[in-house]
Amino acid sequence: MSRPEPELTPGEPVPEPAPPPDLSARRVPLRMYSLKHGDTFLVADALGNVAGDDDGLFHNDTRILSRFIVLLGGKLPSLLGAGLSQDNAVFTTHATNRTPSPLGDEGLPEGAIHLQRSILLWNDRLYEQIRVENFGQAEVQVPVAIRFAADFRDMFEVRGATRLHRGRVADPEVRGDAAVLRYTGLDKVGRQAVIRFSEAPRRLDSGTAEFLFRLPGHGAVDLYIEVGSEEEAAAPGRARFRHAAAQAKRRMRTLSRHGTILRTSGRLFNDWIEKSRSDLSLLVTELPTGPYPYAGIPWFSTTFGRDAIITALQTLWLSPALARGVLRYLASRQALEASDFKDAQPGKIMHEARKGEMVALGELPFGEYYGGVDTTPLFVILAGAYAGRTGDLTLIEELWPALLRAIGWIERVGDNNGHGFVDYARSSEKGLSNQGWKDSHDSVFHADGRFPEGPIALAEVQGYAFAAFRTMADLAAQRGLEEQATQWRVRAEALRMAVEGRFWMKDLGFYALALDGRGQPCRVRASNAGHLLYCGLPSRERALQVGRQLLDAPFYSGWGIRTLARGEANFNPMSYHNGSVWPHDGAICAAGLARYGERDGVVRLLSGLFEAAVHFDMRLPELFCGFPRARGEGPIAYPVACLPQAWASGAVFMTLQACLGLKIDGARNRIRIDRPRLPIGIETLTVEALPIGERQVTLTFQRIGDQVVVSPSSTRPPEVEIIARM
């Protein structure tokens, strides 16, 4: 999900950046933590501080808090520990005073003062409780200072985009217990951050609030702070903090408990499942069209088409409600007219939507952008998968006009280039140069490393288009439209034959990454071919050849499948798309392998992802480096990966479904289980409250010798048929 740097924009001069904290208050590198609610999210370090690098409090793609640093005696405290609650609702950090300390008249011994910060987001507001506790016996005076600032940078500026001119930052308004920071953008929109304290600071100016707490031996004091884009009449306090915390926890509990419950005999594996569910719940935003998973924090905390569709596909077997919300939202934002600036054509499904100043001014096209070549066929695939999983044809009836427009766009692209392939070339220099899921500028190349001329036809996109044609044929047949169903089946088969003829590299036993604008193959082995297996396009013989290579050392790092095979021209295990490991990519490959009967390899992939998750504190990041696994060492993190990321969190569920060989036919109330496997080290797995129409089923998978057997609960509804092949 790389982004181009925008052109410089005329307007008001850029103000000088605020001075950094003094040397004694500079932050050492710490792990970062994230919170989110709606269109507001926070990224802070383990001390709970924001320093204005890649972190901050963001609202509607604008950073409304770029500095928020708590100091004890003018210095950063020493970190004791930090963590998110299991439900991701509250972030808590623990610290203590440094030694020697100037606190009080005589100073304090090490560890005498405990600083606890509890932070949460609710209804576009940050709520914080700061507790200062004296564990010494003597009375002390504890000076606490909070340094704050707001640069009101657009998300794309924070990510590195440069602008010659910006709007104007007003002088902060300081009064009693509050500071108001304001900015008027070039788009004439006023943005502000209101910082308010539960008690008036001893000293408050435009960037610092100072408090002096007199604490008796073993005494404690609480300070409450709220930060939001709007001012509240009520002052911060214990009651408001507790109410917001209760609401945030209730919401997360409701979201994470919705749908099917998975329990295994492995405690750590259960922790991974629960953390993945909590991360998905954190990223889900309730829109008028239903629940929608934002892509990831910090860079992609907004509506993305491709990411949401794949996340919905990953979790469809467990909870179809997410797919329903995604389909309805994307249908409502479907392009109805052409726009070169937005890379839009009638029928295309949206790639992403943003709300910041730069997109409002037209400096970038991402306010509502359609430069994704794969999102439209994936939309059709999800609609068909949802219909098959639920039997809900009422939603398909609602979506049918959008589906016709989507498949019409796919057909037109294939017809326009004469070879039937779905290709892309950006319409605007400000758009994405590469428009598949690997959308960085260097992700498509020839075997010698040269970048190809466009338009580009990616291998996996042809698989998506093939599956979309077959999906439309099935849906049309259900509607009694046999002539249209036949036409789409014919187009699917023609595309399959064309891919087999033009993309297959016989000498390498693999599919080419892409075809360039001259129809020449990019003879590169990339994980894109695994997506062809997911779509069911290759012949069985070729699929097995591809599968063997995906599971071999050039692709498989020991932690997951690399995006690019080791030895290819532009291979770099530290790159974004050319040799790193993306969990969602590996999950799609795993589902593809399972489609062709490869179960043991899927178990191996799931084991690698689980062991990687253990090293990443039970949260798989957006991606990590593709270095080979070494004894005694963990996977190497990619430095700016989103965490959490929706489709990384969903990877466990798609890969687990592939292991279990489980498929649900909601229209027929039927569950098929084909040669199930369990993860390594797991003896039992229970799928509890699996929804089948209006009914629920509980299944238990148990390892007995070399086999895994499945048994339904005694309360299984007789209307639900279970067909199992062990």
Reconstruct the topology from this structure.
Blueprint lengths: L11 E2 L18 E6 L2 E6 L10 E4 L2 E4 L1 E6 L5 E7 L6 E6 L16 E10 L2 E10 L5 E10 L5 H4 L6 E2 L1 E2 L3 E3 L2 E7 L5 E8 L5 E2 L3 E8 L4 E9 L9 H20 L3 E4 L2 H17 E4 L2 E4 L11 H11 L5 H12 L19 E2 L3 H4 L7 E2 L5 H16 L2 H25 L39 E2 H20 L3 H21 L1 E2 L4 E2 L2 E2 L5 E2 L5 H8 L4 H11 L32 H13 L4 H16 L30 H4 L1 H10 L1 E4 L4 E5 L9 E9 L2 E10 L2 E6 L8 E5 L1
Parallel strand pairs: 31-35
Antiparallel strand pairs: 1-12, 2-3, 3-4, 4-5, 6-11, 7-8, 8-9, 9-10, 10-19, 11-18, 13-15, 14-15, 15-16, 16-19, 17-18, 20-32, 21-22, 23-24, 25-28, 26-27, 28-29, 30-31, 32-33, 33-34
Task: Describe this protein's structure.
The protein has 16 helices and 35 strands. The chain starts with 11 loop residues before the first strand and ends with a strand. Strands 7, 8, 9, 10, 13, 14, 15, 16 and 19 form a 9-stranded antiparallel beta sheet that branches. The chain has a 4-stranded antiparallel beta sheet with strand order 2-3-4-5, with no helix packed on it. It is an alpha+beta fold. Strand 9 and strand 10 (125-134) form a beta hairpin. The longest helix has 25 residues, at 393-417. Helices cover 29% and strands 24% of the residues.
List the keywords.
35 strands; 9-stranded antiparallel sheet; alpha+beta; 726 residues; 29% helix
